[in-house]
Specification:
Blueprint (H helix, E strand, L loop, with lengths): L14 H7 L2 H4 L3 H17 L5 H19 L12 H13 L12 H37 L4 E6 L2 E7 H26 L1 E2 L15 H7 L4 E2 L3 H6 L2 H27 L7 E3 L17 H24 L14 H21 L3 E3 L1 H8 L6 H10 L4 H18 L8 H7 L7 H4 L2 H6 L9 H11 L1
């Protein structure tokens, strides 16, 4: 197989080397962006007089035909041609002859792949943002249906204070909202046009980078040719944002797994989103949340793979950077799939409201409210904390709840208790009393839902 760069070499490339260095098996998914960038580059060369009108037309038509061949499955990818860039260029030369060999004028595969990756990520981030928005809508639907549903809130996985289910789910809305902001913000650094930097030093040919940027809808062009071809910050930043998003989905997964267990018994996940056991007939396993939780580790690994790959590379381009694509592509695919399946999964969850409410009434979850009651009577918080702690200890030892204590017994702990304490520490009143901005009261939750909508 003749190489497009073989002039310098006196021996053919070893077949094993061809297979080891080839990236066509995975970078062929960039074909659309490679052709898009090549058409823009060709039009610029024509505009600048480097190509004549006939050559420009032939190249553009040839590239459009190649794109059609690939999409219809008629294009034969060749490992010997290494990557998507060389495969397309070789096919173009075979189809239109000498004009095809002029397409690469004023550029290198170094700036070409940097462009392809930016175009690719620009599109994929838009799809991911759509997925985040859909998942946020699923969460809002749950919140709106459960503005009166009570559950225990947790710290250290111990029952802490009663909260509204809607408030709990809206916490994930806030996480996803930040995720969406991060991806949108990363577009500022992705949406910068590197083509025209050539191998690393720019080119002496009279090209017009601004014109290419306008054709490809880039608001800015890169300002240092060395950095242009050696920068992979934008892929690392994307994988970092993806890791945070997957961490949020993994936390949600962990809760759904716990809640669907018989120990919690808060929810039931629809049969269509669960699997059974090959040996235990009674089992109903929450495999989807478990797999999202598991895939999160893989996404972290992809981020660290890129960071490790880049950490010692001298400027400018090095072949190591070819290895950025597989972890990036895997991250894109995994994030999109996880968002899509979670948007559907949340519609198939049945909340066991009575179980949640009963759990919220156990474990002395209104102890802080009792302490606040005494604070309002004028006692310092640290003193009220001690008093209520003693009441909790007494109840545990006597196997009693707060509600089982009469006023007489309560006054043994503090003379400041009055009959209204038992209304004050009711679970519903505890929740409705949390009127601080961003609190769990129904009023605050409804206010937040209205702000979102």
């Amino acid at each position: 197989m003749k190489k497009l760069w073989e002039g310098r070499f006196s021996e053919d490339t070893d077949r094993l080397v061809e297979e080891f260095t080839a990236s066509i098996s995975f970078d062929k998914r960039l074909y659309k962006y490679d052709i898009m960038g090549s058409i823009a580059h060709c039009k610029m060369l024509g505009r600048c007089g480097i190509l004549n009108k006939e050559e420009t037309k032939k190249i553009v038509n040839g590239l459009e035909n190649i794109e059609k061949e690939i999409e219809e499955g008629e294009f034969e990818f060749d490992t010997g041609l290494e990557d998507i860039h060389m495969n397309i260029e070789k096919r173009l030369i075979d189809e239109i002859g000498d004009p095809g060999g002029k397409l690469h004028t004023g550029r290198s595969r170094n700036d070409q792949v940097a462009l392809d990756m930016r175009l690719y990520l620009r599109d994929e981030i838009q799809e991911i943002i759509k997925g985040i928005k859909e998942l946020k809508r699923s969460i809002i639907r749950i919140a709106k249906k459960n503005v009166d549903t009570i559950m225990p809130g947790y710290t250290h996985l111990q029952r802490a204070q009663p909260v509204l289910v809607s408030h709990h789910f809206l916490a994930y809305f806030e996480m996803l909202d930040r995720d969406e902001e991060r991806f949108k913000d990363s577009l500022k650094r992705i949406n910068v046009m590197p083509l025209g930097s050539a191998a690393l030093a720019g080119t002496s040919l009279p090209i017009d980078r601004d014109y290419v940027a306008s054709l490809l809808n880039f608001p800015k062009i890169t300002t240092n040719s060395i950095d242009s071809v050696s920068d992979r910050d934008f892929t690392i930043e994307f994988c970092a944002a993806a890791s945070i998003l997957m961490m949020h989905l993994s936390r949600l997964s962990e809760e759904l797994i716990l809640w669907s267990s018989s120990e919690f018994n808060f929810i039931e996940i629809g049969d269509s989103f669960c699997t059974g056991s090959s040996i235990m007939p009674q089992k109903k396993n929450p495999d989807v949340p478990e797999l999202v939780r598991g895939k999160t580790g893989k996404i972290y690994g992809n981020l660290f793979s890129l960071l490790t790959m880049m950490k010692s590379l001298p400027l400018a381009y090095n072949r190591d950077m070819q290895e950025d694509k597989r972890p990036l592509f895997d991250t894109v695919d995994t994030v999109k799939a996880s968002l899509n399946i979670y948007s559907r999964l949340l519609k198939e969850i049945k909340l066991k409201k009575d179980e949640m409410s009963n759990a919220a009434s156990k474990g002395f979850t209104t102890a802080t409210d009792m302490s606040d009651y005494l604070v309002k009577k004028g006692l310092p918080f640290r003193e009220t904390h001690k008093i209520v702690g003693e009441i909790v200890k007494y109840c545990i030892n006597k196997n009693k709840r707060f509600e089982d204590l009469g006023l007489k017994k309560m006054k043994e702990f503090s003379d400041l208790f009055e009959d209204d304490i038992f209304r004050y520490i009711k679970v519903e009143n505890s929740i409705n009393g949390k009127m601080s901005k961003g609190g769990t009261s129904g009023k605050e939750v409804l206010k937040r839902i209205a702000e979102i909508e």
